[in-house]
Design a protein that fits this description.
- By secondary structure, the chain is of the alpha/beta class.
- The chain is built from 12 helices and 14 strands.
- The chain folds into 2 domains: 11-153 and 294-368, Rossmann fold, CATH 3.40.50; 156-290 and 371-401, Response regulator (Rossmann fold).
- The protein has helices at 11-17, 40-58, 81-93, 105-121, 155-167, 183-199, 220-228, 240-252, 269-273, 295-307, 317-332, 338-345; strands spanning 26-33, 69-76, 98-101, 128-131, 148-150, 174-180, 204-211, 233-236, 259-261, 281-286, 349-352, 356-361, 366-377, 391-401.
- Strand 3, helix 4 and strand 4 (128-131) form a beta-alpha-beta unit.
- Helix 5 (155-167) runs parallel beside helix 6 and helix 7 (220-228) packs across helix 8.
- The relative contact order is 0.12.
- Mean pLDDT is 93; it is low at 1-22.
Length: 414
Amino acid sequence: MKKKTILGMGTALALTLGASAGFAENIKIAFIDPLSGPFASTGTNGLHQYEFAAQALVNDKGGVLGGDMFEIVPFDNKISPKESLIQLQVAIDQGVRYVVQGNSSGVAHAITDAVAKHNRRNPDSRVLFLNYAAVDTALTNEKCNFWHFRFDANADIKMDALTDVIAANENIKKVYVIGQDYSFGKTVAEAAEKNLAEKRPDIEIVGNELHPIGKVKDFTPYARKIVASEADAVITGNWGSDMLGLGKAVIENGFSGPIYTYYAAGSGMTAAFGETGKGSIRLIGEGQINPPPSDEATAYYEAFKAKYPDGNIDQPRISNVIAMLAKAIEEAGTATDVVAVANALEGMEFESMWGTKIYMRPDDHQAIQNLHVGAHTDENITFPYDNSDYGLLSESTVEMAGMDSATTCDMKRP
């Protein structure tokens, strides 16, 4: 049993304890996401959420395994799969055994493949990939593997819940689907067509197109096509600067219907949409911010804002990643044997401060949890985003969304 070591007391205290007592160690978690370029604000805000969660939920409580602390180590991947693999190898060479990433499913595919190959070749330095936001359904279907866990709902689960809301709105007769031209954008489009056909076959999809990711400077041509189509609603999986550019262009060109999104809040977007987004922007996601679902969530959010006044907790699942990893390490009794940690994560049930139970489904390592559809508004907002008056107010909830969803995952376990 390791004795708890108080950090910051200096080397002399550690030497006094002696080698036989054991020392607290940092458990390094590599954060591989964009910290420069067009999606830097999204990546930086995510990094701050990880740093805060590690400190507040683990380190301030004495760490794990008698005193080991979580350390978030940032790596800028410039939203490039190639650069991500370089940074992944650097992280592994530094002794990292846990990797978190979320921005771009294309990057996630590269990382999960690389981690699987590394673990086959290097059984003494295996790595776990904790995916917090890359939601291409294939990652927990045909591309699943034992070393990958997804803490966000996948694109199909989100679309299933989102189209329940759309199908219930009898005023929606025409829908325009638009997204980024890569695996995630294609998955969103396919799921939208499939679910709407099943739930509201009378709805006409009047547009379904993809655009280059991170390269469109002016979305006006796309917005004009959407308005000309006479669509009643828009569905998009866009995120980061692509979401802001598309959303503003659509609204400014006269579209007044609901814009159903996956990622349209925080990182400057909420403030930028401002009054124009009210009544239009709808977002589906895990975790309820407004109204706050618990006293713990309220205290956590207030403490985060005190440390990062310009930041937002726009991805509550990040705290779930950290808390569930800590719980798995404690249950496994080790942080270095990632197979044991993975086995502890499989089937874990966890009560999140954000108003939901999370179940890590063993079949495909897909987190099952409540999903909320929130509206961009300045009314009844306890925790606004971007130091504005606006935030997301939960309008509807789908309980344990995707619990019975099918998976094609055929997982090979070590």
